[in-house]
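User: Could you write out the 3D structure of this protein bound to magnesium ion? I've included everything you need below.
Assistant: Certainly. Input first, then the structure.
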Amino acid sequence: MESVEVRLEHLTKEYNNSFVAVDNVTLTVGAGELLALLGPSGCGKTTCLRMIAGLVDPTSGEIVIGGKPITKTPVHRRNMGMLFQNYALFPHMTVAENVAFGLEMRKFSRSEREDKVRKALDLVKLGHLADRIPSQLSGGQQQRVALARALVIEPSMLLLDEPLGALDKSLREQMQLEIRHLQQRLGLTTIMVTHDQDEALTMADQIAVMRAGQMEQIASATEIYQRPATQFVAGFIGASNFFEAEEVSRDGRRAQLVTTSGIPLDVTNMRLVTKRVMVTIRPEAITVRPLGAEDPVAAPNTAVAVVEQVVYRGFMLHYYLRMDDGTEVIAYRQTQTEGWGPVSAVGDRVRISWDADSNHVVPLVAEAAAA
Amino acid sequence: MSGKLTGTSAVMLYLITAGMMAFVLCPIVLIVIISFSDGYFVSFPPTGFTTSWYVSVFQNPEFTGALLFSFVLAVGTTLLSLLLGVPAAFAIVRGNFPGRALCKGLLLSPLIFPVLITGLALLQLFSSYGWSTVKLNLLIAHTVVTSPYVIRTVLTSLELVNPSLEEAARTLGATRWQTFRRVIFPQIAPGIASGAIFCFMVSFDNYPVSMWLADSANTPVPVVLYRQIGTVFDPSVATMSSIIIGLSAVVVLALDRMVGLRRAMAM
Ligand SMILES: Nc1ncnc2c1ncn2[C@@H]1O[C@H](COP(=O)(O)OP(=O)(O)O)[C@@H](O)[C@H]1O
Ligand SMILES: [Mg+2]
């Protein structure tokens, strides 16, 4: 099967001529890549996906697959494999009949159908359940049947709308790896909608973060996590601490900043030209130490705080801290790490500190942090 | 919580159910018994056993003609109601147009308006337009009365069909028609069948509408029956009724058997 590139150009959807659900979205999914559309509920992810499938007509914009515009092509000629959250298996057909449906529509002969159905069911390891009825299968099995049904037509691309949302955690993680593995093996260009950031990080080559119909950032998982473009992305993917700060001095990319509460910050990657910025710091970058007698006062990138809550999360401890001026701070600490000294308890005064490299700068927006 | 009733409350429930069954079935049983009565007047208990009323009723061309007329009318009404009702139900459930709720209310309205008034209104309509084809008028009038039954039953079963099934079929390459035939129809077939049963029954024993529109050449069987009662009150009326009851039961059982089979295949 040949992998194709998928492009959305200025795609816009207005519902009822008033509400803009998808606002001028432009993106490219490389041939054979998996892109995750990630964003809070109601931000327009499903609408985007359904426009690509042909189930919703765009108000304006173009969808280009393998260089060919398909915006005017009706659904049933688009040759897309789509997976739905509720599996959408035909309840009155057996597993094999479900998988054969797309082949029948394509007028394959009976023997070709049987052959392809067998191969597709083997691909998802369900060959032994061919004669069952969907209601006799577990959720995970049903979604695998849906996957086989979508793959058997050799679609030009795969569209997944929160396909694993109804499964429990461990099965979901297993299916994520399984789908990813198949998608890579077949080189199938895929767009997956999810509101689960772990799912996006696990499966995607590229993550597109959406907010209120617009694209916030499109980048690889590491890029999105380590260098979020906006405060919204920093707060939505993983947790972040936010400090509003002002530039004091600058030397190329190095800069000295001071937060509104007076904490001096050393920044190694001052990528913005504005004086007032938002600094984001990941909780795992923050070290928590008991406040000793020989405390290094007034060094940059440190502050004093009180422990308000400690949550044990298995391999991580989450500290909920409050600085003297009232700012809340979250810090994570691995439970197994040696040499970090004793675990601080609720009520303890602690010294928090982090590297200059951990200070990440994003534009300051008027609204409050979304996190 | 166990759903089973026990002790006194169970006995009470059984008694009430039995009472209801007796109440509903008694008149029917009574009529069937009287239809075999060997006497010149309707009386109970019957004075003897005879099948001669059946012989004479079947030799009465007025009755057999009306029976056939009603049967054809009911079949035609059912088909026309399905033809109009299924797409209408589809539009109401899946469509996206202003006033959908109002439409739903209006289409179901003959269920709340008295049928007698509907019949009179239709008579006035037909005569004001000079439509004098009685057969067609009856067909239209019966369809007006019965199509809401189809809309209602199809609507209910359509609302239970997951819309993603249609979308899945479409993305797999099915046209709208293929999607309907292969995916939607098998799911709503029981709804269509029960709608059809309602249509047939309502049309077959409709008196209040037919009364206004029938003429001597086109007389449905309930109208004949009513006339018969007005002239002579011998057991032949009970015999005719028994035949109608039997015929209705056969139709219902046949349709149920067909749907039952479909259901079994879908399981
Ligand atoms: N058919 C529709 N008519 C009107 N508004 C819609 C329709 N479908 C979705 N919306 C609205 O568009 C917005 C985006 O919806 P959706 O794409 O489903 O979001 P997501 O999948 O990100 O949760 C939501 O506010 C939703 O209420
Ligand atoms: Mg959605």
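Residues A 15-16, 19, 21, 39, 41-47 surround adenosine-5'-diphosphate (ligand 1) (CB under 6 Å).
User: Perfect, thank you.
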